[in-house]
Amino acid sequence: MGKLITSGMLLLALTAAATAQTAAPGETTAGGLPVEYLPSPLPAPKEGQAPTMRVTELNPNKRSFQVVFSKGDEAIQGLKEFADKNNLNLAHLTAFGALQSASISWFEADKRIYKTIRLKEMMEVTSFTGSIVKNATTGVRTVHVHGSVAVYRNGTVYAGHITDAVIGPTLQVYVDDSAPLTTTAQAPAAAPAR
Asked: How many domains does one find in the chain?
């Protein structure tokens, strides 16, 4: 719950910052505040803002793991081997630690390829989150990680798909695996009449 509130506060703050950058000097909100401020307590989000949201109830009897990598280990392949050995089906993961090399990629949809930056220096993992999913047809498990790293040299941050990651001193990964029970979807809102 705390993470959800923190995420919501961050989203509201980022929205306010983006608005402030495009607002005229001295512009105020409907409540009379300068546009770069939000009232306290923060306003509740408006309902009905996600009409096509889908919800999947996950098994409450989940399995949880801590996976600790050491210097020189490759995290993405290691996670795939771990998932295969432990028969993971639908897992999510988060991690923190440090890397000595990594590839950060962005998918270019028009070319159907990944543009990649390869980093070979010490870096701190500032975000590392993803999924491990078993394909129901082929049985192949895929590790999909997004994240960001900050290089020690100057703090520059790189973010995107983490397609390979060689561990610096350590990386601690927390994995929760569940099987889906049911899927529900809200009906999309009807298009307005023209």
From this structure: 2
